[in-house]
Write a structure and sequence with these properties.
The chain has five helices and four strands, in the order αααβαβββα. By secondary structure, it is of the alpha+beta class. The longest helix has 136 residues. The radius of gyration is 65 Å and the shape is rod-shaped.
Length: 265
């Protein structure tokens, strides 16, 4: 088969014209469309990458916030536990302190009651001893003892100093010139006269002297005005003994109280 050169050239020219036309009217548009599409895809990919980065940043931010919240929560929880333990310790300490204080007050109250009971018991015992002593001495009092009491009383009157005599006279003056002589036993007329004479030597004979029996006295005799008294009786000694015993028992009670307090402390 023979190849027609004209035809070949014509075909080549037609192909070139077709290429030109395609390039002129189609290829540039297609390329432009493809470039635009490529740019659009590139932009979308950039936007997607940006969105991914932003999403990653947001995720990191959320993670950071969550970690901060968790850390703050842990701190708050730890602080709450610490405060709770501190409050519990304070409450326990206060409770123990109150219990210790109540125990101390209770022990002190018991100790005071015990001390008061022992003190009252000792005082009562002291009073009972003195009362028994008074009764025994009162029951044992006889004429010989009574005479001895009168003699001692008269001796005591004779030993008064001038100042004591003047004071006694002054007190008698306030009592309308009356003087009472009290005794725990009945005086004989002879003894009354002896006492009256001794008193007149001391205070003069212008004073009315009266005698009476006083059951309150124990083995004794006294002369009394409104504000002055001269006496000699066993009652005074027993009163002194009672006071000394009470004082001694009180000191013992206080010593025991101090010892018990030291033990409780």
């Amino acid at each position: 088969m023979l190849i027609d050169s004209f035809t070949v050239i014509a075909q080549i020219i037609n192909f070139l014209i077709l290429i030109y036309l395609l390039k002129r009217f189609l290829f540039n548009r297609i390329i432009k469309i493809m470039d635009d599409r490529e740019m659009q895809i590139t932009d979308q990919m950039k936007d997607a990458e940006t969105a991914k980065e932003e999403a990653q940043k947001e995720l990191e931010e959320q993670r950071r916030i969550r970690e901060e919240l968790q850390e703050k929560w842990n701190e708050m929880l730890a602080q709450a536990k610490k405060d709770a333990r501190k409050k519990r310790d304070e409450l326990v300490k206060d409770a123990r302190s109150k219990i210790d204080e109540e125990q101390k007050n209770w022990k002190e109250a018991i100790l005071k009651q015990q001390t008061a009971f022992l003190r009252d018991l000792r005082h009562l015992s002291c009073e009972q001893v003195c009362q028994i002593s008074r009764k025994v001495l009162s029951d044992l009092a006889g004429e010989k003892l009574e005479n001895q009491l009168i003699e001692n009383f008269l001796v005591q009157l004779g030993k008064l100093s001038k100042k004591e005599k003047d004071d006694f006279v002054r007190f008698i003056g306030k009592d309308e010139q009356k003087l009472w002589v009290n005794s725990s036993f009945r005086l004989t007329k002879e003894k009354e006269s002896e006492i009256r004479k001794t008193l007149e030597d001391v205070i003069g004979d212008k004073v009315e002297i009266n005698f009476k029996v006083s059951p309150d006295l124990i083995c004794g005799i006294e002369t009394r005005t409104e504000g002055k008294k001269i006496s000699w009786n066993i009652e005074n000694y027993l009163d002194g003994l009672e006071e000394q015993l009470k004082k001694a028992f009180t000191e013992i009670s206080f010593q025991e109280l101090d010892v018990e307090k030291k033990k409780t402390e």
